[in-house]
Design brief:
This protein is α/β, with parallel strands linked by helices. 44% of the residues lie in helices and 15% in strands. A hairpin with a 4-residue loop joins strand 9 (256-258) and strand 10. Helix 3 (98-122) runs parallel beside helix 5 (147-159), helix 3 packs parallel to helix 8 (222-232) and helix 6 (171-193) packs across helix 9. The protein is globular. The model has no long low-confidence stretch (mean pLDDT 91).
């Protein structure tokens, strides 16, 4: 499986050379085998690349991300439905009944709230952590009591401060949004590679959102990214999100994370989660493979560059 995330943050020309990404930059040249790359992030307006390279990235199932003027991911290039059993998988996806979608959504949100509870416990918010654990256990199919929203309100207020909101222009919010966008891209890549249409969600159904299903699957990953950011930035920095901060977020994709069955990197888990979704659709299993935020994660070795 590919394992590298490549970030181009200076003026460069990118091209295909002997089945490798060639980066020509400041009079120098470097090559990275395409088979090693999972994500290519273009983070500078003066980066040019060849159509031949874009085509090769699609063939090798490499996600290509672009950013806006504020350096936030705003575009994504994905492989064009390369799965060999595309029609069969699409039929399975479209045949999902509403009750089954609700049960799958229940699994995702239950694990999300459980992970939120673990993170609060890590930060000595024992009472709030216990509340969230109870919410997770009682979460019903379809979330009729709106437990997800209630849990989020309590979670962010306890984790940061009583006046914290997700709309505030502050470092933690920008870092979380950047990190979530990276996970979303990795999930979208896995969905397409398995022949699923990301626009057809389980719970999300926005007609203008091409990644509804990725936005469903990302939910239990969110507290894990929050834990990663707080681990590396226990005090909120006064500066805006810089290059080193973005690289820290990108490293999250390559760190090992516990799951309901063992552990693996976040990139590998995005693949395994989508594979488990297909298995649920075919009736081979009933539960999704989900990220589990353990009480001792992030691991000490994750501090290494």
């Amino acid at each position: 499986m590919s394992w590298r995330s490549v970030v181009i943050s200076k003026p460069a020309y990118l091209s295909l050379h002997h089945h490798a990404l060639r980066v020509q930059q400041e009079g120098q040249s470097a090559r990275i085998p395409l088979e090693d790359i999972s994500v290519l992030l273009i983070d500078h307006p003066r980066v040019s690349l060849s159509a031949q390279l874009l085509s090769a990235c699609a063939t090798e199932k490499i996600v290509v991300l672009t950013v806006d003027a504020q350096h936030h991911p705003n575009g994504i290039s994905l492989p064009f439905l390369p799965h060999h059993r595309l029609l069969k998988v699409l039929r399975l996806q479209m045949a999902l009944t509403k009750p089954k979608k609700k049960r799958l959504h229940q699994q995702l949100i239950r694990q999300k709230i459980s992970n939120q509870a673990t993170l609060l416990e890590q930060h000595q918010k024992t009472g709030a952590a216990l509340q969230l654990s109870r919410m997770a256990k009682k979460l019903a199919s379809g979330d009729p009591d709106n437990d997800e929203a209630q849990a989020a309100q309590l979670y962010f207020r306890q984790l940061y401060s009583t006046g914290f909101t997700r709309q505030q222009p502050r470092f933690y919010n920008v870092a979380m949004n950047y990190g979530y966008a990276l996970i979303r891209a990795a999930l979208a890549r896995s969905l397409v590679c398995h022949g699923l249409l990301p626009v057809l969600g389980l719970f999300h159904h926005n007609a203008y959102n091409p990644f509804n299903l990725a936005d469903d699957l990302i939910e239990p990953f969110r507290p894990c990214m929050d834990a990663w950011i707080l681990h590396h930035y226990p005090g909120e920095p006064a500066h805006t999100l810089g290059r080193a901060d973005k690289q820290c977020c990108i490293r999250f994709l390559h760190t090992d994370l516990s799951t309901t069955k063992g552990s693996c990197s976040v990139l590998a888990l995005s693949e395994a989660l989508v594979s488990s979704l297909v298995s649920v659709m075919t009736g081979r299993q009933d539960t999704l493979l989900l990220p589990v935020l353990s009480g001792y994660w992030p691991y000490p070795q994750d501090d290494l560059p």
